[in-house]
Amino acid sequence: MDRSSPVPLYYQLAQQLEAAIEQGGLAPGSLLGNEIELAARLGLSRPTVRQAIQSLVDKGLLVRRRGVGTQVVHSQVRRPLELSSLYDDLETAGQRPATRLLSHAVEPATAEVAAALGVPEGAEVVHIERLRLAHGEPVAHLRNHLPAGLLDLDGDVLAETGLYRLMRTAGITLHSARQTIGARAATPEEAELLGEPAGAPLLTMERTTFDDTGRAVEFGSHLYRASRYSFDFQLLARG
Questions:
Q1: Edge-first strand listing for the sheet containing 216-225
Q2: Which of 61, 173, 182, 195 could make an SS bond with 56 (beta carbons 3.0 to 4.6 A apart)?
Q3: Residues 85, 220: contact at Cβ < 8 Å?
Q4: Residue 90 φ/ψ, nearest 5 degrees
Q5: Are 207 and 231 in contact, with CB atoms under 8 Å apart?
Q6: pLDDT digits (tens, 9 = 90+) for 20-72
Q7: Model-level pTM?
């Protein structure tokens, strides 16, 4: 702790704890101990420690358990807004990604999917539905449509790695994407799948991805737990 800094001590402590959680130094389920023990160990006042802990409780990273102490719940996934896959982002952040394959089938394209992929309505497309987990907890429900014949996929491969990594391995060069982000309440079915209460806020994302020839190679319609997930933006002022 830098006691000469104008940054409040509680905020410095909260930042250090949050960094330890995000980097895996404090894994889900880890105990911090009670406020008295923490204050004595860190040489801080009890109100300072209480304020730092409360700020992380409010973020959903910590929980207070009577008779147990303060416990790490999970780290929130912060994803940079760039053309990357959730699997790769989770892996880079040390979040131990895993995938549960829910569906993998060839089906006729709906009007929405056909428009996104630039194929005739009713044309055959590949539909993949997956549940993405981090540290064993659901993070996102992913639905993807691909043009038929784009990739040779099987269930084992889809459960082991990310879709964009498979595309790159197949020689597809991802160039750009058109993306829309929104939010809505979870239906009972979505809430059960993602481990949230019915009506919980979910982030939504629709993305159409193009290769270096301008061909649409993927249309994704994804749901993310707002309690576990956020997008990071970098905004530049116009000159």
A1: 97-108, 124-134, 137-147, 216-225, 201-211, 174-185
A2: 61
A3: no
A4: -65, -40
A5: no
A6: 877 667 777 778 777 788 888 888 888 888 898 888 887 767 877 776 678 78
A7: 0.64
Helix H or strand E encompassing 103: strand 97-108
Q: Is the dihedral of CA 90, 52, 196, 116 positive or negative?
A: negative
CB neighbour list of residue 187: distance below 8 Å, 6 or more residues apart: 198
Cα separation, 31 vs 120, in Å, equals 56
Strands 77-80 and 97-108: unpaired
The three-class DSSP label of residue 18 is: helix
Question: In angstroms, rounded to a whole number, what is the distance separating the alpha carbons of residues 183 and 203?
Answer: 4
* Distance, CA of 237 to CA of 196 (rounded, Å): 37
State how far the Cα of 46 lies from the Cα of 5, in Å rounded to an integer.
Answer: 19
Q: Which two tokens stand for residue 19?
A: 């960094």
Contact 91, 74 (CB under 8 A): no
Q: Tell me the pLDDT tens digit for each residue of 105-129.
A: 999 999 999 999 999 999 999 999 9
Query: What is the C-alpha separation between 46 and 64, in angstroms, rounded?
Result: 15
Burial of 129 (0-12, 13-18, 19+ CB in 10 A): middle
CA 104, CA 127: separation in Å to the nearest integer? Answer: 6
Cα three-residue angle 47-50-54, rounded to 5 degrees: 140
